[in-house]
Automatic annotation (TrEMBL):
It comes from Stigmatella ashevillensis. Residues 511-547 form the ATP-grasp domain. Keywords: ATP-binding, Ligase, Nucleotide-binding. One of its GO terms (molecular function) is ligase activity. Residues 751-908 form the N-acetyltransferase domain. Signal peptide: none annotated. Pfam families: Acetyltransf_3, ATP-grasp_5, CoA_binding_2, Ligase_CoA_2, Succ_CoA_lig. The keyword Nucleotide-binding applies. The keyword ATP-binding applies. InterPro entries: Acyl-CoA_Synth/Transferase, Acyl_CoA_acyltransferase, ATP-grasp, ATP_grasp_subdomain_1, CoA-bd, GNAT_dom, Ligase_CoA_dom, NAD(P)-bd_dom_sf. This is Bifunctional acetate--CoA ligase family protein/GNAT family N-acetyltransferase.
Length: 911
């Protein structure tokens, strides 16, 4: 047996992974209870007792300056008096004392604190000021804090119980995080009765520091956690939550119940869009975008955790019901269909198979009623036949205990069908008579439900969850690059209006702004006088539309400012003077600035609305739906977060009722949906790039088989005094145009350098096809088969990145087909640390041309911009070319003293 030589201190410092900051909270080696008490019933006593009665492998230090011992354990007068390093401080002293306690903890090197104490921002201004003082001290000491005003934290798998709850949770693989401590204790009590176990049990409290994103990141990397359940009252840092959730959701289910569903936006905005975008709808859209499943009840929270742990996700919404009674099948059908699911239509092959062994009286359809005298064998055969049907995405087996029914034996006979490749659920209806069968099914991995409508509701959650996740990494089609200088053209209209002190663009300006982003608008001409109006109408050709042109009035129809289908010059003159008279009569004569003249467009398509308004938490929110003057009446709309790609644009459309009509109904040809997707992508780009826009809507957008045409548009700006830097950030980090550029290699080849996009998956596949085995071995420190490298799931994750977490730069050689990738450099933040890790892969034909050096130099610059402390990479010791590039850019190459170690670490300290 070889003995590893001792590490050089410099190597140890640079090579070893830093301990995650939240390890101080979840895996402390020592805990100080500040405010430990002997008083019966006090929080300080319960906390100390929970820590010492559930050994977690560390030391507990009670801190109380007024006592020499608590519960027979020596106390310390202060945290600074403790002779050993302390990882975690649990604080239960009164709120006014907490800032000084945190200051002392920071000075003593404590890295984590749980503040149980209440009396902070929930009490008003003074409490909020206390919180800010606490946070300042914590930041100074680089401490992480859970709370204040929380129950604490449990880690049942290790025995850590840093809470004042009355019991310790059972160990398991579900992490439960709650903002409500009271709810947490109720769930804890329930879990003891239902024997549900947890990998972590966390009360977040006020989220002064540690929030949802931090915990999702940490638990996403926790091998003991298989699913993450959230009880949420407020989202806090929206971008951090969405970034972490989207990263973790494909590996582990994230299931949330959010309190306050019915709360509407506090104040309706001026546009149609603003009046429709209620805050809870926005939150639901955000969950969907991140692959988070939202449920409506605490029971469903745990149902879904169980089901997703035991059964695969369905590929679609079609469910097959197998039952021995008609009534429960009808109940399940109602629940399924009302929730958006569908009954699977049995194939002819399946019907033939079922006819072969079922009595003639069976239902001959779905639900598959196998009759009340069904024995275990009939159940098994029916389930096998139905499960083999390609038209079905999942199965629900229902049993009612009739005289001839054998619930236990039937359950035992169905055990082999727990793994059919599609979800299998069961509803064993009854009480004690079916209890043994339920246990058999649950132990076999088939989740059971007391009622079939509950099971159908859970299946609806399952297919919806699959639908959300598929959108995360479904490869979009390539949207056209914007032509010209759209951003600058649009900004000119905005700056001009703000210079005049205006917050409203005129319809003419609004349409010009849309046109800059490639969104077709109906031709619109300005006229300041009757004669000009007639002249413009004559030039356009009759019939025409005359509309009020005003820099201050928002909705023209509300003041009689729209005149349609004008067929002569005299009608145009009357429209001009009539609009002017109406405003004069309303006392708004100063708001008349002339009219616009437009051709009368025949409404031979569908009227849609496309819009955006601002949400306080998530920033700009997009809206798509049925438009026209009755938009608020029908409320057929869907919300989404920018930026969009074509896949996300289609998913946005699919969530509306009008989407079905757009595909063609009653003999009408379908709308060009691909063009509509690209229009939505361009619109989202406008919203992302023009942050000074507060609200914008196109209503109506005329959509037909021949065209997509914006007939009217409104743009509301932020007040002139509002700086762009003060606006709520985009919830999803937009495409970083600032990293686009060009470079020239040693042989004179000119390449485009730009961040990666989801649409790049086909190019990435071609790139991997062209790599030699040597290049693959050097990059991945071993061989990876081509089919593994180009698998859709892998390439989609490579291309569809969160720019807030990582940056992948492509070197692209221009080609008539749109470009060939010849190099990829990636910088990834190591969450919870100040480090970033880089990786590099250059095509064989472009190696030794200086491309790797140039790409790494750009990644280092991005790392500095992000505020990273170090950039690191593990490199094969035989990969001397990559090591040479690193040394050239100031990296230290640290070799392991063990001669058998095949990797070296490249480290560049940035601060």
């Amino acid at each position: 047996m070889s003995v590893r030589p001792p590490l050089d201190p410099a190597y140890d410092l640079l090579h070893q992974q830093a301990r995650h900051p939240l390890d101080a909270l979840f895996s402390p080696r020592s805990v100080a209870v500040i405010g430990a008490s002997e008083r019966q019933g006090s929080v300080g006593r319960t906390l100390l007792w929970n820590l010492i009665s559930n050994p977690f492998g560390g030391t507990v230090y009670p801190v109380n300056p007024k006592r020499t011992n608590v519960l027979g354990i020596r106390t310390w007068p202060s945290i600074s008096a403790i002779p050993e390093p302390v990882d975690l401080a649990v604080i239960v002293t009164p709120a006014p004392t907490v800032p000084a306690v945190i200051r002392e903890c920071a000075d003593a090197g404590v890295k984590g604190a749980i503040i149980i104490s209440a009396g902070f921002k929930e009490t008003g201004v003074e409490g909020a000021l206390l919180e800010q003082e606490v946070l300042r001290e914590a930041r100074r000491g680089r401490m992480r804090i859970i709370g204040p005003n929380c129950l604490g934290l449990m880690r049942p798998t290790t025995g850590l119980n840093a809470t004042f709850a009355g019991a310790m949770a059972r160990p398991g693989n579900v992490a439960f995080i709650s903002q409500s401590g009271a709810l947490l204790t109720a769930i804890l009590d329930w879990s003891q009765r239902e024997t549900v176990g947890f990998s972590a049990f966390v009360s977040l409290g006020s989220m002064l520091d540690v929030g949802w994103g931090d915990l999702i990141d940490y638990l996403g990397n926790d091998p003991r956690t298989r699913s993450i359940l959230l009880y949420m009252e407020s989202i806090g840092d929206a971008r951090a939550f969405l970034s972490a959730a989207r990263e973790v959701a494909l590996q582990k289910p994230i299931i949330v119940i959010k309190a306050g569903r019915t709360e509407q936006a506090a104040k309706a905005a001026a546009s149609h869009t603003g009046t429709l975008a209620g805050s809870d709808e926005v939150l639901t859209a955000a969950f969907r975008r991140a692959g988070v499943l939202r449920v409506d009840s605490i029971a469903d929270l745990f149902h879904m955790a169980e089901v997703l742990a035991k059964q695969p996700r369905p590929e679609g919404r079609r469910l097959t019901l197998v039952t021995n009674a008609g009534g429960p099948g009808v109940l399940a059908t109602d629940a399924l269909v009302s929730g958006g699911g569908e009954l699977a239509k049995p194939s002819d092959k399946t019907l033939s198979a079922l006819n072969g062994f079922l009595p003639p009286q069976w239902s001959h359809s779905n639900p598959v009623d196998i009759l009340g005298d069904a024995d275990p064998e009939r159940y098994a055969k029916a389930l096998e036949a139905a499960g083999a049907d390609e038209n079905s995405d999942g199965l629900l087996v229902i049993l009612t205990p009739q005289d001839m029914t054998e619930p236990t034996q039937t359950a035992d006979r169905l055990k082999p069908y727990a793994r059919l490749g599609k979800p299998v659920l069961a509803s064993w209806m009854g009480g004690s008579e079916v209890a043994a069968g339920e246990r058999i099914l649950n132990d076999a991995g088939i989740p059971t439900f007391g009622y079939p409508d509950t099971a159908a509701r859970i299946f609806n959650y399952m297919w919806r969850y699959s639908y959300y996740l598929s959108a995360l990494y479904e490869t979009p089609t390539l949207a056209e690059e914007s032509t010209g200088n759209a951003r600058e053209q649009a900004r000119a209209f905005i700056d001009a209006a703000r210079a005049e002190g205006r917050t409203l663009l005129t319809e003419y300006e609004s349409k010009q702004l849309l046109a800059a982003y490639g969104i077709a608008t109906v031709e619109t001409r300005l006229a300041a006088t009757e004669d000009e109006a007639v002249s413009q109408a004559d030039a356009l050709g009759y019939p025409v539309v005359v509309k009020l042109h005003s820099r201050t009035i928002s909705h023209k129809t509300d003041v009689g400012g729209v005149r349609l289908n004008l067929t002569s010059a005299s009608q145009v003159r009357e429209a001009f003077s009539g609009i002017q008279r109406t405003l004069h009569g309303l006392g708004q004569a100063e708001s008349f600035h002339g009219v616009t003249v437009q051709p009368m467009v025949r409404l031979d398509g569908y009227e849609l609305i496309v819009g955006s308004s601002l949400d306080a938490q998530f920033g700009p929110v997009l809206l798509f739906g049925a438009g026209g003057i009755l938009v608020e009446v029908f409320q057929d709309r869907a919300l989404g977060l920018p930026p969009l790609n074509t896949t996300l644009a289609r998913r946005l459309m699919e969530r509306t009722l009008i989407y079905k009509a757009l595909q063609g109904v009653r003999g009408r040809p379908p709308v060009d949906l691909a063009a509509l997707e690209k229009l939505l992508v361009r619109f989202s780009k406008l919203v992302v790039e023009q942050r000074l826009i507060k609200e914008v809507d196109i209503n109506p957008l005329l959509a037909s088989a021949e065209r997509l045409l914006a007939l009217d548009a409104r743009v509301v700006l932020h007040e002139p005094g509002v700086p762009e830097s003060s606006l709520p950030p985009l919830a999803i980090h937009p495409y970083p145009h600032q990293y686009e550029g060009r470079l020239r290699t040693r042989d004179g080849t000119e390449l485009i350098v730009r961040p990666i996009r989801p649409e790049d998956e086909p190019k990435m596949e071609a790139f991997h096809h062209a790599l030699s085995e040597q290049s693959v071995f050097m990059r991945y420190a071993g061989m990876m088969r081509l089919d593994q490298r180009v698998a859709h799931e892998r390439l989609a994750r490579i291309c569809f990145i969160d720019y807030a977490r990582e940056m992948a730069l492509l070197a692209v050689s221009p080609t008539p087909e749109g470009g060939e990738i010849v190099g990829v450099g990636r910088l990834t933040r190591l969450q919870g640390t100040g480090d970033g890790e880089f990786a590099m892969l250059i095509s064989d034909r472009m190696q030794y041309q200086g491309l790797g050096t140039e790409m790494l130099q750009r990644l280092v610059a991005i790392g500095r911009e992000w505020g990273l402390e170090r950039i690191v990479a593990d490199i094969l010791s035989r990969n001397t070319p990559m090591q040479r590039v690193c040394r050239k850019l100031g990296f230290d190459i640290i070799a392991d003293p063990d001669p058998t170690e095949e990797m070296v670490r490249a480290v560049k300290v940035l601060v």
